[in-house]
Design goal:
Strand content of chain B: over 45%
Number of strands of chain B: 11
Mean pLDDT of chain B: 91
Order of helices and strands of chain A: EEEEEEEEEEE
Shape of chain B: globular
Number of helices of chain B: 0
Largest sheet of chain B: 5 strands, mixed
Structural class of chain A: mainly beta
Low-confidence stretches of chain B: none
Order of helices and strands of chain B: EEEEEEEEEEE
Largest sheet of chain A: 7 strands, mixed
Number of strands of chain A: 11
Number of helices of chain A: 0
Shape of chain A: globular
Helix content of chain B: under 10%
Low-confidence stretches of chain A: none
Distance between the termini of chain A: 34 Å
Oligomer: heterodimer
Helix content of chain A: under 10%
Distance between the termini of chain B: 41 Å
Radius of gyration of chain A: 13 Å
Chain lengths: 112, 114
């Protein structure tokens, strides 16, 4: 199916564990983004990528790692999960002259 | 650098009222785009409209209209004859054509009461 897919949709993990959230898009969009959404904070940009092998920090990058070896994939890794990283995570993609940025359905991550 | 401000945290209206959501953005970019998104209670992010920095033409789409004024750095969104289904959080989001960074305002929660 065409579009942008996040997996898993729900994840519970323990403090200190490494966890990777996956994001896959089928449009070959240049740009991809990761956001977290917490009550009272809207969507905050964690990392973004302009193309394969090019990534940049967003507003709240600490504690996260990203990679983009292929245009269509943009995984987000929490190296050592903390309770403060409990959130809903959204991935998005867009073209460089975007008609819009399109979002995945989100991953609800709970760190216990 | 980019900054976007949605000063209205929550708005409550009665059905059929018109409502305007405000967005003020700051950027030094020469090329940028402005988006509006809707996030209904189900949680998904729905793209509504895009404007680029060269196009100040206002737009109307059904009950939705957008007013983009570069001189005041504002990109406001009006819903005419609001309906209960319009209840959602609305986000304004500037995209930098220079860096590719897309950031979001804090969002405005709109509640439309029957």
């Amino acid at each position: 199916d065409a579009g942008i897919t996040q997996s898993p949709r729900y994840k519970i993990t323990e403090t200190g564990r490494q966890v990777t959230l996956m994001c896959h898009q089928t449009w070959s969009h240049s740009y991809m983004f990761w956001y977290r959404q917490d009550l009272g904070h809207g969507l905050r940009l964690i990392y973004y990528s302009a193309a394969a092998d090019i990534t940049d920090k967003g507003e709240v990058p600490d504690g996260y790692v990203v990679s983009r070896s292929k245009t269509e994939n943009f995984p987000l890794t929490l190296e050592s999960a903390t309770r403060s990283q409990t959130s809903v995570y959204f991935c998005a993609s867009s073209e460089s002259s975007p008609e819009g940025a399109f979002f995945g359905q989100g991953t609800r991550l709970t760190v216990v | 650098a980019q900054k976007v401000t949605q000063a209205q945290t929550e708005i409550s209206v009665v059905e059929k009222e018109d409502v305007t959501l405000d967005c003020v953005y700051e950027t030094r970019d020469t090329t940028y785009y402005l988006f509006w998104y809707k996030q209904p209670p189900s949680g998904e992010l729905v793209f509504l409209i895009r404007r680029n920095s060269f196009d100040e033409q206002n737009e109307i789409s059904g009950r939705y209209s957008w007013n983009f004024q570069k001189s005041t750095s504002s990109f406001n969104f009006t819903i005419t004859a609001s309906q209960v289904v319009d209840s959602a959080v609305y986000f304004c989001a500037p995209f930098s054509g220079n860096t590719g960074k897309l950031i979001f305002g804090q969002g405005t929660t709109l509640q439309v009461k029957p």
